[in-house]
Amino acid sequence: MLTGEEPISAPFELLLCKPRTPAAARRLWRIIHYVPDMTDAELEVRPYRDSDEPAVVALWERLFPDARAWNQPAAYIRRKLAVQRELFLVGALDGRAVATVLAGYDGVRGWVYHLAVAPEHRRHGYGRIMMAAAEERLRALGCPKINLQIMRTNAEVVRFYERLGYAVEDRVSMGRALG
């Protein structure tokens, strides 16, 4: 039986099961019927290159305009390039960065940060593609679980991640600036 908690890459056998809840039925329908629009330009997912910096900074400034001092794009990029550079991914169309995702793994859990898709390129499955690429790389490192944080007021993004199989957990997120 489906519970609605199955990963998005549910095996074929799950498709033969009868969902127990309406939520599980909706999730199964989305898994079965998701077909990317093949007329869209193909997104090239690759590691960040130094030449991507102007496009990535511009993208993040558009999408994260209220970034805190420690999250200013150029500084954020420099810090990420110093640690697990290979987990800084760019989605490019015709060589230009239109999407990003950063991941990290500390040996216990993986984290995903700054999934971003330029607004004019949304609704083409690029966010899903970028997340799949980050998950694949974390899985290859032996990562058993991924965490991410979303602003409480960003319900649309919460729904996006729920469609990918993520669930809101009963946790309190805390932070402290060190510098």
Summary, kept brief:
The protein has 179 residues and is an alpha+beta fold. The chain is built from six helices and five strands, in the order ααβααβββαβα.
What can you see in these coordinates?
It is a single chain. The chain is an alpha+beta fold. It folds into 2 domains: 34 residues, no CATH class; 121 residues, Aminopeptidase, CATH 3.40.630.30. 34% of the residues lie in helices and 17% in strands. It contains 6 helices and 5 strands. The chain has a 5-stranded mixed beta sheet with strand order 1-2-3-4-5. It is globular and about 50 Å long. It starts with 11 loop residues before the first helix and ends in a 16-residue tail after the last helix.
Key attributes of the depicted protein:
6 helices, alpha+beta, 5-stranded mixed β-sheet, Aminopeptidase
Topology overview:
Blueprint: H1 12-15, H2 22-33, E1 44-47, H3 53-63, H4 73-82, E2 88-93, E3 96-105, E4 110-117, H5 126-140, E5 146-148, H6 155-163
Parallel strand pairs: 4-5
Antiparallel strand pairs: 1-2, 2-3, 3-4
